[in-house]
User: Fold this.
Amino acid sequence: MKKHIIDFEVSSNEEVGNNAILMKLHCPTPLPEIKPGQFVEVRIDNEPNVFLRRPISINYIDKKANEMWLLVQKVGKGTNKLGTLQKGDTLNCVVPLGNGFDTKAAQGKKVLLVGGGVGVAPMLMLGSTLKEEGTEPTFLLGARTKNMLLEKELFEQTGRLLVTTEDGSLGEKGFVTNHSVLSNEKFDKIYVCGPTPMMKAVAGYAKKAGIDCEVSLENKMACGLGACLCCVTETQEGHKCVCTDGPVFNINELTWQI
Assistant:
């Protein structure tokens, strides 16, 4: 897919809990084609200690408003700087990057979308796209506490929402792999994004149950274009760049011990 460098205008930038922000960006021209699971590289301006762009998952595309949404966890100088942007400010992005989820593989199937922490970000666009294509999504989202679950209302509006929290403050207590739905229902396709241990646990469940499963890796990146090789991951076919060959991989492509 063709990549574009675009100066987006910030429509809004709001705190949404768990030290995260939801940034809505208006595109001055019609948005390019973007697939669920793809990401952007954003330029951090006016921060002298940040030299490289930051990779951010695309949370949602609002076609009517011609907006791209980014759900960002503030963890360092770059992402904290993004939290200071105001309505009307400009954010330069390279978009779209990566390969995205295979939504066609879900047609006519019962699908489960699993997200943990800020890894829920690409699941909103994925669920919305699946729904548009005629597949009703079931979301299984995990968080430490109910206050750390992001975009709960939006997920409820998009599909069936199941929740686990480590402290039991919302939904079932435990990790996503402890949820009773995995024992009580049979799914044909699973999509996952979140912390690596969580993704490996879900991938292990999927492999044992014979369920086709895709995961979105969150390796550290710099260029986002496959040049710097800092995001390389091991696959059955050798080393591949997560930024260009991924970030989405079928679990059968990976060398995970699950």
User: Anything to note?
Assistant: The two ends are 32 Å apart (CA to CA). Residues 4-97 form a domain with the Elongation Factor Tu (Ef-tu); domain 3 fold (CATH 2.40.30.10). Residues 11 and 87 are 5 Å apart (CA to CA). DSSP finds five helices and 15 strands in the chain.
